[in-house]
Amino acid sequence: MPLALLAPATRSGAEIDGLFLPEGYEPTYAYPLLVWLSTVPVSPCEFERRMRAISERNYLGVCIPVSPHAEIADVAAQVQNVVCAVRRDHHVHSERIVLAATADGAAIALEVALRHPSWFGGVVSLGAPPATRCLLAEANELRGFRAFLGGTPGADWPALKRTERLLWTAGLNVRLWQWAERARIPANLWRELNHWLMAGIENEATVWA
């Protein structure tokens, strides 16, 4: 039986590019959910490789195709629909849902997450930040919110540094990572991302202990 279930839709009918179940999936355990946005088609094998590179056991994963020209409100509604569908079919920890994206989807993910911080336990944005200056519209709800930003040296890096400073000043917990490779994200970044995600879960457990 395959460990990654990849199909064009959930059982509830929400359109997705892939759904990943971790190795040894236990239906009674509430898993963190990584919600990936993609502006280009993602093959089943590519999505499975990405999730396995992060962790084979720690997370559920879903990949949602989005239009790069869609309104942020429409993408947010799409994300909400898919997450609700996944939660109907699988056991998801409601406070450990992380929105993520690479390349052109990175800016969209960051903007959606910062507009709806109560929906997510954090955001992963691996690419150029959004051009909008309204990232902190929900500033009162953003203190302590976790953000993992990343990119390569080049024209977008100064904008990423400015975004990091802006979010840090607003009280967010921000991690900024740079990698040299331009063609693909290196394996050590996926490992670092797993450490960052698990650190947030461990910190949450300590706070509530």
Structural commentary:
It is a single chain. With 209 residues, the protein is α/β, with parallel strands linked by helices. The protein is built from five helices and eight strands, in the order βββαβαβαββαβα. It has an eight-stranded mixed sheet, with helices on both faces. Helix 2 packs across helix 3 (105-115). Mean pLDDT is 89; it is low at 1-7.
Note poorly predicted spans: 1-7
Q: How would you describe the oligomerization state of the chains in this entry?
A: single chain
The main β sheet shows up as: 8 strands, mixed
Which term fits the overall shape? globular
Alpha-carbon distance between the termini? 37 Å
* Strand arrangement in the largest pleated sheet: 1-2-4-3-5-6-7-8
Determine the strand fraction and express it as a percent band. Answer: 15-25%
| Total strand segments | 8
Helix/strand order, N-terminal first: EEEHEHEHEEHEH
Helix count, DSSP H or I runs of 4 or more residues: 5
Structural class: alpha/beta
Question: Radius of gyration, rounded?
Answer: 16 Å
Taking all residues together, what is the mean pLDDT? 89
The proportion of residues forming helix, as a percent range, comes to 25-40%
SSE inventory with pairings:
Layout: E1 4-5, E2 18-20, E3 31-38, H1 44-54, E4 60-65, H2 72-89, E5 92-102, H3 105-115, E6 122-126, E7 146-151, H4 157-169, E8 173-178, H5 187-208
Parallel strand pairs: 3-4, 3-5, 5-6, 6-7, 7-8
Antiparallel strand pairs: 1-2, 2-4
Helix pairs in contact: 2-3
